Amino acid sequence: MEVIYELDDQQIEQLYQLYQYEWWTKGRTLEETDECIKGSQLI
Question: How far does Cα 17 stand from its chain's mean position?
């Protein structure tokens, strides 16, 4: 397994798009997604 410590802008956008399909993250903004990623130690 590869450990990823940072996501680039394209990966963050892809994660944001994926979140729009889930009830628990639907409606989350791109900025909120970015903040969640910045607050995570392991992705």
Answer: 9
